[in-house]
Amino acid sequence: MKSIHPLTSIRGASAVQIMFGIVIIAALFAFPQFVESPYALHMMILFFLSTLMGSSWNIIGGYTGQYSVGHAAYFGTGAYTTMILLTTKEIPPWQGMWIGMFAAVIVALIVGSICFRLRGPYFVLASIAVAEIVRITALNLTDLTKGAEGILVTDIPPFKIGELLITDFASKVPYYYIALVLALAIILVTWLVQHSKLGYYFQAIREDQDAAHSLGINLTIWKNTPLVISAVFTSLAGSFYAIFIKFIDPTTVLPLDLSVQIVLISIIGGIGTIWGPVVGSLVLVPLSEALRSNVIAQWLINSGMVDAESGTGVFLKEHLAHAHVLIYGILVVVVILFMPEGVMGYVKKLAAKKKGGEA
Amino acid sequence: MTFSVLLQSIISGMLVGGVYALIGIGLTIIFGVMRVINFAHGDIMMVGMYLTFFLFTLLGIDPFVSVLITMPLMFLFGALMQKVFINRVLSALPQNQILLTIGLGLIMSNSAMLAFTSDYKILTTSYSSSSYSLGGISISQPLLISFLITCAITVGLYWFLMRTDTGQAIRATAQDREAAQLMGINVKWMSILSFGIGSAMAGTAGALIAPTYYIFPQVGSAFTLKAFVITVLGGMGSIIGATLGGIIIGLVESVSAVTISSEWKDVVVFAIFLLVLLIKPSGLMGKSRL
Amino acid sequence: MAILEIKHVSKLFGGLAANSDVSFEMTEGMIMGLIGPNGAGKTTLFNCITGYYPPTKGEVIFEGRKMNGLQPDAVCKLGMARTWQKVRPLAKMTVVDNVMVGALCRTNSIKVAREMAMEQIRVVRLEHRANFLAGGLPIGERKKLEVARVLATNPKLLLLDEVMGGLNPAESEEIIQLILDIKQKGKITQMVIEHDMKAIMRISDRIVVLNSGEKLAEGEPKDIVSNPEVITAYLGSE
């Protein structure tokens, strides 16, 4: 009998785990009180945003096994809806984002009605095609989207409830809290999914559609449900990105590369797990930021390995930053070849091995 | 729009379609033999484009002559890629195979960006913009030459697959891997060979369009998508299907560019793609076979 | 009253008839054996009954209700559940989670579903495997899991497609006992496809024989074994 082993899964969380979680959340909320560096805040915001995007994809891709490589469509829908409403109708983002979510749901249902008839690689291809259609449409509907020029806003209107000013978005701190809350929200949603009928049905579809169908699972309903949940949160990520960066165009919020990056967050961390996308973001965000911001090139030069004035040094300083996506490529190849269950799965396997060795 | 404009666009669509067909054939052979959808296909083509560019600028070799160098080099490139990477995931989930090729594509395009920057490069030959005139319709000289070369390669490849022992072994592997193995065919070697041929086709296509297209590191992804559309349209795994698919897509692009607008031509292509997936997912030429 | 009526069911693939004009009835609580040489159309008939294919012609009537055009999930909810000839465990889920997926067809509560699942796991005697991944089980236990999972959907009619295929004699005997126990309880009617003649003769109340898509014979086991046409069909095909 090979590869047969019981799962020592713990149902529910122990008191220690809950305490640990509360401490971490408290620390995250307190973080901006102690750290003023805008760069540190920026990195944390990117980490939360990445978690939000990765976890959103994880619900349809990881739990339900429907590998959408077109999630940029929902991200872009959220971003564009929010920005267009803000610039043309002066609707503030915290209202615009709801309309963005609604628009993303409509896009998701269209995608679902086309793509869910297809399986495996054909589904992947169809999801890409739909996202490309959305991108080209955004590029060409210049009256609405300003096309390749993109949409720029200079001021975000202050967030007021009645007369009470919540924030005027003057620093990165309000963005930090919004991103943190969104990231916690998607983790909570994932937890709820995993511990409810939804999670069982999603995973049953992932493991075997025909078997799931024969066990009373309506495939149309139970594939579109995770897609809609996923699209709503991806759209929120897009809305947030738009007001955080204050500029969007089709090449930043709708490209195929973005769809791929969204998939990779979970793949690298470990799909179909609550913490996979968090781990994936912990790996990816610092690495790609280090490349993007030239930290690595600087470090290579400072460490004396490369002479700053030499051809290589100049070259690295100029170009390494543009190639931050390279790290995604290398990571995904390494992960697929050596840790097909992602970092989470790899660590679990190592832990199991160690345990087995001691026993 | 006059009739001659339409005719003009049909002819140039056919010519471009020939090169598309070459890209599609490469993808379809890889899929037919290994059931792996190669998302790095356009990036392999991009490598072929740069190779041609540097052979021309550094050594002064004409792009169409350089096919003789590009093709074998790209064959080795693909064979190596199969042996080192793809071979390890042949029995993995299709999703993981897709992700692996996506990753390899990202590595290729971003390495190209590191090495050659993201600037657009243009390969200008003496005949880049020259054309033949035929009854008021102009036929681009480089496009015509590349179309003819494509035809020769396609016929040659078809002959190889149909008439040679190795070709038949490849087809047997595509039809039923296990049975082929039982018949004593070295399936692993056939896979390496097919990935080599597939990427040689993509690389050659890159060489052929280099004189008429911008060369930049990210050029691949658009062609990867096109290659999918072509192969799905023709029927995954069918060479005749890919040839037809390539020409159809070339036609659709150029005709919709003049009848609708060039901005929306890709939307038309993707819409056709989705329609085919929904109505006849097995494509024009039926189920996968070589 | 008949719980299931198959009326003149035909299924064509291209021009080929996988089933042609098959009719029979099942009464509540019985075990119907469905036999025939390979390619006789047994699994196709299962697929027509459970909504995987619409029959080209004819009707499937379950508890007086016409089933044509219903999807498998709706069929399951109405109380008809099937197992698969080639087992389909949800590999990366545990045994208890697999069975819970079946139970969730009747409840929205995870807690209730878990209790229902454990009950069926005990019925098939897989308690010791409850927290194992389904993908790692040996074939005998996978077959049992398959049965537990469909039992958890609380069916009125159970369609078992070669649940003894590939099992050793001891494992087959366990499954036979399981089928007989289910009958004993009297709540579930069963239709069983099986290649093992001895087993099918032992458990069936009636047997339908299919050959080349057509119904060749129907009757009690003792009549079937002595039916010359059936004997020819089997000898002819082997």
TrEMBL record, chain A:
Presence of keyword Membrane: yes
InterPro entries hit by this protein: ABC_transp_permease (IPR001851), LivM-like (IPR043428)
Annotated localization: Cell membrane
Membrane topology term: Multi-pass membrane protein
Keyword Transcription regulation attached: no
Top-level division of the source organism's lineage: Bacteria
Keywords: Cell membrane, Membrane, Transmembrane, Transmembrane helix
CDD domains: TM_PBP1_LivM_like (cd06581)
Major location (coarse): membrane
Protein name: Branched-chain amino acid ABC transporter permease
Organism encoding this protein: Pelotalea chapellei
UniProtKB/TrEMBL annotation, chain B:
Membrane spanning residue stretches: 6-32, 44-61, 67-86, 98-117, 137-161, 192-216, 228-252, 264-284
Name of protein: Branched-chain amino acid ABC transporter permease
Record's bilayer topology term: Multi-pass membrane protein
Pfam (any one): BPD_transp_2
InterPro entries found in the cross-reference section: ABC_transp_permease (IPR001851), BCAA_transport_permease (IPR052157)
Alphabetic keyword roster: Amino-acid transport, Cell membrane, Membrane, Transmembrane, Transmembrane helix, Transport
Subcellular location field: Cell membrane
Record-stated family: Belongs to the binding-protein-dependent transport system permease family. LivHM subfamily.
Automatic annotation (TrEMBL), chain C:
Keyword Disulfide bond found: no
Keywords: ATP-binding, Nucleotide-binding, Transport
Cited PANTHER family: AMINO ACID ABC TRANSPORTER ATP-BINDING PROTEIN, CONSERVED COMPONENT OF ABC TRANSPORTER FOR NATURAL AMINO ACIDS-RELATED
GO molecular-function term, one example from the UniProt record: ATP binding
InterPro entries: AAA+_ATPase (IPR003593), ABC_AA/LPS_Transport (IPR051120), ABC_transporter-like_ATP-bd (IPR003439), BCA_ABC_TP_C (IPR032823), P-loop_NTPase (IPR027417)
Annotated protein name in UniProt: ABC transporter ATP-binding protein
Superkingdom of this protein's organism: Bacteria
SMART domains registered for this protein in UniProt: AAA
PROSITE patterns per record: ABC_TRANSPORTER_2
Keyword Nucleotide-binding in record: yes
Domain ABC transporter: 4-237
